[in-house]
């Protein structure tokens, strides 16, 4: 079972009030329904969603609904649930703010005053066409699909009311309203009341974030180690040059001491070298002090090389 399927099943098990039920139905029919003059057809693959929509229509409008179950064998075997509504079509569409006086109402003309109404509308859209990636197997991605761009934009605007950032793009003949932020997807799952799905999502998210942090720290450590080795090798190169050209006598005793310790500890960082010198000599010195000595070494090498050029 996919993460999307299990999340939808969990959502459909929540008890909702009449207002939530009507708004959920409104968006579900708007996003996935085939509306004709004498019939509304709803097609879905999830049995739990089919039961929820059947129950909501039955309880709100008291009508008979034809149910057809088909077996689809293309790519994989799956059951398709088809609900057909033939009674009180205009009454239903008007009650759900999909039509008024025979004219279709745009999503933006639907008045959703409260957070409860907005969430239930979003929930219905998700049950109709939504999907969310399993965080354990792929990246973070939640989306709503719509046939019309204005429907996708309306979903995006509703999400914005809850500080959730989404984008609307065209994909083949559909429009996708999608969210990529893991924190915002978590907020949506919480908003829909899918507690078990939220716990699963958060467990995976925490694990992945921790793993990414460890990888970044390891990469940073490797990078620092490479820099330390390069610095040590360059300093040894300068030291060898000074010895080969008999320039050691031009340096003070403290710098000579730093040179001696660098030769003993070629792979140590400047901080580590400073600690070693301080402990073994009894003279406290810091990283900047050791660095100062090797700047002297470097400048002496550069002066000598420049003088030979001239």
Quaternary structure classification: single chain
Number of domains: 2
Q: Percentage of helical residues?
A: 55-70%
Low-confidence stretches: none
Structure summary, number of beta strands: 10
CATH architecture of the largest domain: Roll
Structural class of the helices, strands and pairings? alpha+beta
Average pLDDT figure: 85
Report the span from N to C terminus: 79 Å
Number of helices: 11
CATH class descriptor of the largest domain: Alpha Beta
For the record, what is the CATH homologous superfamily label of the largest domain?
Homing endonucleases
- Strand residue percentage: 5-15%
Gyration radius, in Å: 34 Å
The strand line-up of the biggest sheet is 1-2-4-3
Shape: rod-shaped
Compose a concise summary of this entry:
With 310 residues, the chain is an alpha+beta fold. It is built from 11 helices and 10 strands.
List the helices and strands and how they pair.
Blueprint: H1 3-12, H2 18-32, E1 33-35, E2 40-44, H3 47-61, E3 65-72, E4 78-85, H4 89-95, E5 99-100, E6 103-104, H5 115-129, E7 131-132, E8 142-146, H6 149-160, E9 167-171, E10 174-179, H7 182-191, H8 195-244, H9 253-264, H10 270-281, H11 287-309
Antiparallel strand pairs: 1-2, 2-4, 3-4, 5-6, 7-8, 8-10, 9-10
Helix pairs in contact: 2-3, 2-5, 7-8, 8-11, 9-11, 10-11
């Amino acid at each position: 079972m996919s993460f999307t399927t299990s999340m939808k099943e969990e959502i459909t098990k929540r008890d909702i009030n009449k207002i939530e039920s009507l708004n959920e139905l409104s968006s579900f029919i708007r996003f996935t329904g085939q509306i004709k003059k004498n019939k509304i057809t709803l097609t879905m693959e999830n049995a739990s969603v089919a039961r929820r929509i059947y129950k909501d229509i039955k309880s709100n409008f008291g009508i008979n609904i034809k149910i057809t179950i088909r077996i689809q064998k293309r790519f994989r075997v799956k059951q398709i649930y088809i609900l057909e509504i033939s009674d009180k079509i205009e009454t239903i569409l008007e009650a759900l703010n999909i039509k008024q006086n025979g004219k279709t109402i745009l999503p933006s003309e639907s008045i959703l005053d409260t957070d409860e109404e907005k969430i239930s509308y979003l929930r219905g859209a998700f049950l109709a066409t939504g999907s969310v990636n399993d965080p354990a197997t792929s990246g973070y991605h939640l989306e709503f699909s719509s046939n019309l761009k204005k429907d996708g934009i309306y979903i995006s605007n509703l999400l914005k009311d809850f500080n959730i950032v989404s984008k609307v793009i065209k994909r083949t003949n559909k429009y996708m309203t999608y969210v990529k932020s893991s924190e915002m997807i978590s907020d949506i799952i919480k908003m829909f009341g899918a507690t078990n799905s939220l716990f699963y999502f958060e467990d995976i998210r925490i694990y992945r974030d921790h793993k990414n942090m460890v990888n970044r720290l390891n990469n940073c450590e490797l990078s620092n180690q490479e820099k330390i080795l390069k610095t040590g090798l360059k300093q040894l190169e300068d030291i060898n040059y000074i010895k080969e050209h008999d320039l050691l006598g031009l340096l003070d005793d403290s710098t000579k001491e730093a040179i001696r310790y660098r030769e003993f500890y070629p792979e140590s960082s400047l901080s580590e070298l400073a600690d070693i010198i301080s402990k073994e000599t009894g003279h406290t010195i810091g990283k900047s002090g050791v660095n100062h000595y090797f700047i002297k070494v470097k400048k002496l090498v550069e002066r000598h090389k420049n003088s030979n050029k001239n």
